Automatic annotation (TrEMBL):
Keyword Endoplasmic reticulum tagged: no
Gene Ontology MF terms: ATP binding
Name of the molecule in the record: histidine kinase
Residue ranges constituting the Histidine kinase domain according to the UniProt record: 364-595
PANTHER family: PAC DOMAIN-CONTAINING PROTEIN (PTHR43304:SF1), PHYTOCHROME-LIKE PROTEIN CPH1 (PTHR43304)
Enzyme superclass (EC): transferase
Annotated signal sequence range: none
Superkingdom as given in the UniProt entry: Bacteria
Organism for this UniProt entry: Chromobacterium piscinae
Residues of the PAS domain: 199-270
Length: 596
């Protein structure tokens, strides 16, 4: 089993979307507690940094502001004891009357530690006031709830990093395993080739007198001289050596006719050298010999008189060639088997990537819902605390008109926050449900796409409201298809919204063109605009749920994800993006004219 990944948290980045969410709650916390400063601090030894600071009146702390550790800061004690610290009034507390924050007018403090899942300290979450403040139980509960929310996000950031590092390690291990398997497969081939090279090297050494047998044949008398090494090689004794006919009598009968014919042809035209490979009986075994020779003397008529050559034992080389041939015969089968294993491994990787994509989508949805639901919980908790407080005042007959009016004003603000965040959560859930939409709820009928698109664009982009946008429809008026008109309307509506939000957001207008054509049983819809285009680094992500370049500006990143889902789930088609920065974007969609 693989050991758990040890994520280094010192430089682990906090994404922009998390920071935006924390900032919103810091601002809400400062407003509800009526204090000038709510902070998230991050420790960066030997300093500590203001990571986020509430946007509230009287707040003296700025983001990215650094302070040295070891100077008696409140946050140092919180991180050291990993527990809560409350200082109602530092001016009257001998332990804190020298605290550096007093110089900024902050004389009261309440803070909690923030800890990564591996128990590394991230920093603190704290609030400060310029007046004495005992920070009642409700405020302590609010700060604790926010701390829990931030630590949940830290856990998500940590786990995402750990999964990414573990996935990278798994891919590297799998690649290394496949490489080793192929290396093992080729090891046999390299071994056979090495044996063949060694045999060739022995042959070269023989030519240089390094141990192969040398023979000298007197063609006129028929006698032959064999060196001692040659005698050993052939397994002969000096008494057996008579003439060159011995060479023929011990040659393998399957090769004798061909070798005799080659030798006769060479002696007729003794140019260059004679080379022959054949089997030779040595004792009770057959060995392979390489014979090389050259005519070195001719008579006056040009007939050969003397021929000198060498014998080399190439049995090992022939065996290596045989092994290599066998290996080559089976290599294709082995490669095919390894290829099947590799394909299976790639399928497993594909399944893992699909599961990771699903996990990212679910995590994105949970992240998007976390902020409005967290705000609802905070507001409801505060409302309950305020109701309890005013009920207690009423029971003890301490309720004043001013107190009631303040309660009503605060309750109205809280209810407004509750309604706004509840509507946002409901809208998110509705959009998320659209991602899983199928064709069961889509009526299918025959219609003219030219009329449907014209009516839709009149509704979406009336000329009186969008005078700087030009619309061009290239749809045959007589084209009739049987499909899902509402699906096409939703698809084009999301594309128009994407153009208005991203393509025309800088120049305020431009041209939109919609083409629909039919080629036999397939339809092609092209939606194009001449806006600012989409960068190459973003094009692979635009159809991912919750991917947006306008985080914190109202964008949720679901529009093009819904387009992709409509094309695949309802229209049973395909979509691709073509875009160059500064030259607009085009979405090309192909789908069956009559999907089943």
């Amino acid at each position: 089993m693989r050991a758990a990944v040890d994520v280094k948290t010192a430089n682990l980045a906090v994404g922009h979307d998390y920071a935006e969410k924390w900032q919103e709650v810091l601002d809400l916390l400062a407003r509800l507690m009526r204090i000038p400063a709510a902070l998230i601090m991050r420790v960066q030894p030997p300093r500590i940094k203001v990571f986020l600071s509430s946007r509230s009146d009287g707040n003296p702390y700025e983001e990215d502001e650094l302070a040295d550790l070891g100077t008696g800061l409140y946050c140092e004690t919180v991180m050291a004891r990993r527990g809560e610290l409350i200082v109602p009034n530092a001016l009257s507390d001998r332990d804190w009357d020298h605290n550096p924050d007093i110089k900024l007018g902050m004389i009261s403090y309440m803070g909690l530690p923030l800890v990564w899942p591996n128990q590394d300290v991230f920093g603190t979450i704290c609030v400060l006031d310029s007046a004495e403040n005992p920070y009642n139980a409700t405020y302590r509960q609010l700060l604790a709830q926010f701390r829990a929310m931030v630590e949940r996000d830290l856990r998500q950031i940590y786990n995402d990093k750990a999964r990414a590092e573990e996935d990278a390690a798994l891919r590297a291990d799998e690649a290394e395993r496949v490489r080793r398997e192929f290396e093992r497969l080729r090891a046999g081939e390299r071994k056979a080739l090495q044996a063949l090279r060694e045999s060739e090297e022995r042959w070269h050494f023989a030519l240089e007198g390094a141990g192969d047998g040398v023979w000298d044949w007197d063609l006129s008398e028929g006698g032959v001289f064999l060196s001692s090494r040659c005698q050993q090689l052939l397994g002969l004794f000096p008494a057996e050596i008579a003439d060159f006919q011995l060479w023929q009598t011990r040659m393998h009968p399957d090769e004798l006719p061909a070798v005799q014919a080659e030798l006769a042809d060479y002696l007729q035209r003794p140019e260059g050298s004679f080379v022959s490979e054949h089997r030779f009986r040595r004792g009770d075994e057959w060995i392979w010999l390489l014979a090389r020779g050259m005519v070195v003397s001719l008579d006056i008529h040009g007939r050969p008189l003397r021929m000198i050559g060498t014998y080399s034992d190439i049995t090992a080389r022939k065996q290596a060639e045989t092994e290599l041939q066998l290996l080559n015969n089976h290599l294709e089968e082995r490669v095919a088997a390894r290829g099947a294993e590799l394909q299976a491994a790639m399928q497993q990787i594909s399944i893992a990537e699909k599961q990771a994509a699903l996990a990212r989508m679910v995590a994105g949805m949970a992240h998007e819902l976390n902020t409005p639901i967290g705000n609802v919980l905070l507001c409801s908790s505060q409302m309950r605390a305020d109701i309890g407080a005013i009920a207690a005042d009423d029971a003890e007959k301490r309720l004043s008109r001013k107190g009631l009016q303040e309660f009503l004003q605060k309750a109205g603000e809280t209810c407004e926050l509750l309604q706004r965040n509840s509507e946002q959560a409901g809208d998110l859930i509705g959009r998320f449900k659209q991602i899983a939409v199928d064709q069961l709820g889509q009526p299918k009928r025959s219609f003219h796409p030219a009329k449907v698109m014209a009516n839709l664009l009149e509704t979406l982009l009336p000329a009186e409201h969008h005078p700087h946008i030009r619309i061009e429809l290239r749809i045959p008026a007589d084209l009739v298809i049987e499909n899902y008109p509402s699906a096409l309307e939703q698809l084009v509506s999301h594309l128009v919204a994407n153009t208005l939000a991203h393509g025309f957001d800088e120049k305020g207008g431009g041209a939109i063109r919609i083409d629909i054509g039919r080629d036999q049983d397939e339809l092609t819809l092209i939606y194009a605009d001449d806006g600012k285009g989409i960068g190459h680094d973003l094009q692979s992500k635009v159809f991912d749920p919750f991917f947006t370049t306008r985080m914190g500006q109202g964008g949720m990143g679901l529009g093009l994800a819904l387009v992709h889902n409509i094309v695949q789930a309802i229209l049973k088609g395909r979509i691709r993006l073509e875009s160059e920065p500064g030259r607009g974007a085009a979405f090309i969609i192909t789908f069956p004219a009559n999907p089943s």
